[in-house]
Inverse folding.
């Protein structure tokens, strides 16, 4: 078998984990794809006779490239118009992740709520958290990847874990319950039924609309069930223009709104004690191009 073929097959075998690391690091699939492509270019040019562990080598390159891009992204994020949410991705892990516990870890690490919290970590903290918590890399290997001592990496990991645990919502919701509540919420919103909406919303419910200034959405986070309910009731007439389908996005059921067969928005609920705690709506067209493109699970 030709050396180039072996090289390509070796890289493709590790592409899923490289994409998963890069996406969790960056919160944007397009950026993750760019990073993985750059990792491929470096892999292609490397002297592989000196590479004993291709997976470790590729993860190391991908992580360092993601850190560099993340530092630039923080500058861009400051100029972002309105609230920011990660780029949604379809997450049907399928038979490649058969273990229920592993699926739960992967789904949690890619949830919108967790990715939003990860935005507040430093690039190094985020790298350590992703490599350790989502993919279970040993501290020694992470230390080599980041060119830090193992003791320093353990400190970063502890700090990042505490930060995430303090800020992310911890609501264990049965998938069937989540789907049922999502369907009832969609029916109430589509019908403009304010009374039913208020019954489904927690008193301190929030609505986060990410449009990047390129589509209609609230310019600020809406706070309180009354404001959220009245906003959804006010736009109910326009919802009749869309086709809706339920799909798994970032580890949980979500509503995909299609306009003429093209993605217009993704809506996903955060649920606590049987009521809607937060309504996340992503309408930025730059973040929706790949939602139906059959991208592999991250």
């Amino acid at each position: 078998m030709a050396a180039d073929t072996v090289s390509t097959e070796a890289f493709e075998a590790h592409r899923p984990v490289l994409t998963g690391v890069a996406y969790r690091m960056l919160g944007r699939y397009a950026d993750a794809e760019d990073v993985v492509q750059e990792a491929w270019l470096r892999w292609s040019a490397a002297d592989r006779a000196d590479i004993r562990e291709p997976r470790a080598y590729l993860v190391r390159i991908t992580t360092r490239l993601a850190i560099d891009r993340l530092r630039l992204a923080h500058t861009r994020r400051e100029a972002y118009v309105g609230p920011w949410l990660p780029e949604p991705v379809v997450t049907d892990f399928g038979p490649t992740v058969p273990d229920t516990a592993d699926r739960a870890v992967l789904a949690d690490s890619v949830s919108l709520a967790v990715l939003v919290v990860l935005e507040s970590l430093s690039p190094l903290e985020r790298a350590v958290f992703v490599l350790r918590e989502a993919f279970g890399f040993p501290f020694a290997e992470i230390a080599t990847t980041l060119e830090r001592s193992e003791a320093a990496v353990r400190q970063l990991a502890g700090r990042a874990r505490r930060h995430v645990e303090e800020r992310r919502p911890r609501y264990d919701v049965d998938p069937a319950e989540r789907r049922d509540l999502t369907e009832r919420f969609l029916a109430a919103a589509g019908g403009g039924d304010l009374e039913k909406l208020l019954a489904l919303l927690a008193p301190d419910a929030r609505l986060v609309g990410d449009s990047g200034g390129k589509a209609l959405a609230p310019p600020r986070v809406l706070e309180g069930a009354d404001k959220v309910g009245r906003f959804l009731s006010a736009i109910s007439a326009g919802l009749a223009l869309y086709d809706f389908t339920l799909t798994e996005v970032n580890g949980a059921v979500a509503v995909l709104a299609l306009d003429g067969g093209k993605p217009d928005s993704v809506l996903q609920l955060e649920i606590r004690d049987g009521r809607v705690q937060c309504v996340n709506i992503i309408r930025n067209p730059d973040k929706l191009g790949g939602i139906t493109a059959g991208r592999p699970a991250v």
Q: What stands out?
A: The longest strand covers residues 262-272. The radius of gyration is 20 Å. The mean pLDDT is 90. The chain is about 55% helix and 15% strand.
